[in-house]
Amino acid sequence: MVDRNLFAHDLAIAAILKNEGHYIKEWLDYHLLAGVDHFYLYDNDSTDNYAEIIAPYVDAGLVTSKHIGGKSAQFAAYDDAVLNHRFDCRYMAFVDLDEFILPRTTTDTISATLDDVLKNFPDASGLAVNWQLYGSSGHETADYSRGVLERFTRRAPVDWIVPIPHRDIPGGNAQVKTVANPRRIFCFTSAHFPIYFAGNFSVNERGGRVDSYCNAPVTAERLVVNHYNVKSRAEFLGKLGKGRADKSTNYFSDEWFGIYDRNEIFDDGILKYRAARAEKFALETDEHRLHRMKTTLIATLAAYAENDFPADKLETALTCCAAAERLQEKIFAEASLAAVLKSLDGLNFSDAQLFLSELPNLLRLPYSAADDLRGAAIEIISRLIDFMRANECWKDFAKLEHLRRLLKIF
User: Fold this and answer.
1) Could you give the CA distance from residue 93 to residue 126 in angstroms, rounded to a whole number?
2) Which of 333, 311, 331, 312 is nearest to 322 (CA)?
């Protein structure tokens, strides 16, 4: 992994939302206590007072808010977060406003728990975290004077799995959300898991590979996503009219409420976790953030100058570029581009994909090394085209041939 001190943020959340004014302050405050230090929020045509509520968080530099219009915009929102912020944060989580990430057996931060789990699986690029679905706790009406976490304290059994209505695929707690290294993500075609660059994958907390929205049997010893899917009946009825962020088809119905309103187990563990974390909570100052980034950047670039490369040399070099841009010092930007150039020898397929994904950002930099990167990119693309032609990967072949021509023209 890249040195954590090169990143502006340790753990960020990317989320799309619509009319979540009743819930967003609790959701933000909880995740800040749990160690999330930035949020990329995509407002999908909200008509409530969302912007007013998050304004203090935006002013404090904790939230980056963007508008994204239209239906089924969730994948586009996640893709935007990855494309524009993958080098700003060490981990990125992809959850909704009715989902709260909870370490189950510790008062540590979410990212500390992730580190402790993933250290045993060094080849993994992300963690697939199972849901724990909470029901209405018998509430018929919406009491907005109390938070979601206080009102809904009853859930389904840990291993509860049920077919999703009308789709005949496993639902319930079998479904996962993902926390990942965003530099290894190509794109999203599901709200539950990313499409990674070649050779990258998620695991569950026991190390089992997870390549879909579903992880069964459910693993829930270390980290879960508490999902308050239905809330009270009145709130669920409001959800019916809002539609879905990931699909044009809205499957929510009275039938859905009947299936997902599960209240067998009393579990207020998240309230205890929140209280324990509140005693340890402290935000990093901007001054401290910039100081640690600068100190680490100087040491890292000095190592590249001596050809002393880290294991993830391209990923680290590209992260240096992002850190240099945040610090706004030309000498660091030029040295970071030189580090990227030094990292291009012997690229594996995944790193080649990462490099080409980041290439437009690199080529816009006003330094002479950008011309050298253009030439290197043409050579890398030519090698990839030969590989794809030999393996009959015609769709990817056509895209790369088009890119190669553009690089030669401009």
Assistant:
1) 9
2) 333
310 and 220 within one domain:
no
> In 208-312, at which residue ranges do the beta strands (DSSP E only) sit?
209-210, 223-227, 265-266
The strand pair at 176-180 and 89-94 is best described as antiparallel
The dihedrals phi and psi of 362, each to the nearest 5 degrees, come to -70, -40
Do 144 and 201 fall within a single domain?
yes
Boundaries of domain holding 28? 4-278
7/91 Cα distance (integer angstroms)? 10
pLDDT digits (tens, 9 = 90+) for 369-393: 888 898 899 888 888 887 777 766 6
Does the CA dihedral 27-30-31-37 come out positive or negative?
positive
pTM of the entire predicted model? 0.93
> In the chain, what is the greatest distance between 2 CA atoms, to the nearest angstrom?
66
Query: Which residues have a Cβ under 8 Å from the Cβ of 336 and sit 6 or more positions away?
Result: 297, 301, 317, 320, 321, 323, 324
CA angle 265, 267, 269 (to 5 degrees): 160
Bridging pattern class, strands 126-133 and 176-180: antiparallel
